Amino acid sequence: MSTNTPPAPGRPSPRPTPRLSPAFHRFWAGSLSSNLADGIMLTALPMLAAALTNDPLAVAGLTAARYLPWLLFGLLAGALVDRVDRVRAMVAANLLRAAAITALAILTATGNATVTTLYIVMFAAMTCEIVYDTAGRAILPALARTALDRANGRLVGGREVAQEFAGAPLGGFLFAIAAALPLATNAGAYALGALILLGLPLTARRAPAPPTDQPATPPADPVRAVLHDIGQGLRHIHTDPPLRALILFGATLNLGAAAVTAVFVLTVQDHYGVPPHLFGVFLATAALGAIGGALLAGNTAHRIGRYRGITAGYLAQAAFCTLFALAPDAPTAAAAWTLVAAASAYGTVLSSGILQQIVPEHLMGRVSSAKQMLGLGLAPAGALLGGLLARADLRAPALFGAAVFTAATLLALRHLRTATARADANEQAARADPAH
Fold first, then answer.
1. What is the pLDDT of residues 344-370, one digit of tens each?
2. Does the chain have fewer CB atoms within 10 Å around its N or its C terminus?
3. Rounded to an integer, what distance in angstroms lies between the CA atom of residue 291 and that of residue 230?
4. The Major facilitator superfamily (MFS) profile domain covers which part of the protein (predicted)?
């Protein structure tokens, strides 16, 4: 899409509520099935690890296996999905995940599963997840270019329902019956998601050709060609200040969020006195808030404008995070945390839509993977900082997070204004294009 800077943004001109296509709904259905599988897997594998060993470090190793693939293969996956049929990449990723989980189910049923096996399966499944997620973000503009905020709202809300409300409890329930049962169900949900995606239209499958004003020819050698593609994506980010600021803004928010969530369980249980058997209820209220915030963003962004929405969302997140830290009791803290989750989801939906509108489609995979890599790269530093602050006071990480959310939003205002203006202009141009 064009990235010409339009006039400063104000309230968008009134327009009908954007409609989502049947192709998007097929894509959403496939995502829901995969999200259900994610929720089952991320519940069943830690439970299986705890059944195999009582070593906390060994169990914690699953978390490292979960995030390590992003740091190793994130940029490579971005270059891949900008070169291949994105639907086939998503289908292949789901089928490979299904195969890995099926193998683990067989090993578990026969009593041959080990903690090392769990690491290998988690690493393999999350490597496939990188390809699936990156391709999904890249394909979305082709399915919902004129309704990206509603589409992102549906995806985020659907993910919370399928993963947190359905997948996580189902994984725990099935594990109580038989350890291999959630794994078999998990594999089936991944396979179903792959089958649903096969029906997506050809127009959404491949990245469009680069504009004619970018004639650079990649090297013939495959390795050098991939490095060329990765470099092209990184150069695009570097030479586009608003886009670069949007990505750094998201990474900084992740640092603050990681500081808060790293000791969240201790804050809730030790400071607010919530018993362990009610901790899940505390988390469920936050999931409800995230669903509400995601759906609200998708349905209201075209009325109040992305710039107003994203700034209000993240400043509200800071305010509610402060309220969570200073809450006088557990019910007030739960209500505040629900609002934190709602504001975070609201801002996430809008920032995703902005990025998808201003990044050229042939670079979408590389830019989105770089964004994810940077965000996840700062998260461990935020978690460590949160742990250090919590040694002084369990409320300190939440106050630190609130300060980070506020400072990051205020410092990014100028670039957020420019980026949202470009996104609005590109969306209006897409509405005027008969092809959309």
1. 999 988 998 888 888 888 888 888 888
2. C
3. 34
4. 243-436
pLDDT score of 60: 65
User: Which pLDDT band holds residue 17 (cuts at 50, 70, 90)?
Assistant: low
Choose one of 149, 176, 209: the last residue of a domain. Answer: 209
Q: Which residues of 27-39 are buried (b: 16+ CB within 10 A; e: fewer)?
A: bbbbbbbbbbbbb
User: What is the domain count for the chain?
Assistant: 2
What is the per-residue pLDDT across 93-132, written as a single tens digit (0 to 9) for each?
999 999 999 999 999 999 999 999 999 999 999 999 999 9
> Are 178 and 291 found together in one domain?
no
197 found inside a domain:
yes
Q: What is the rounded distance in angstroms from the CA atom of residue 318 to the CA atom of residue 347?
A: 12
The rounded distance, in Å, linking the Cα atoms of 58 and 62 is: 8
Q: Does 150 share its domain with 287?
A: no
Please tell me whether residues 169 and 272 are part of one structural domain: no
Range of the domain at 274: 222-436
Q: How many Cβ atoms are within 10 Å of 259's Cβ, its own excluded?
A: 28
- Residue 276 pLDDT more than 90? no
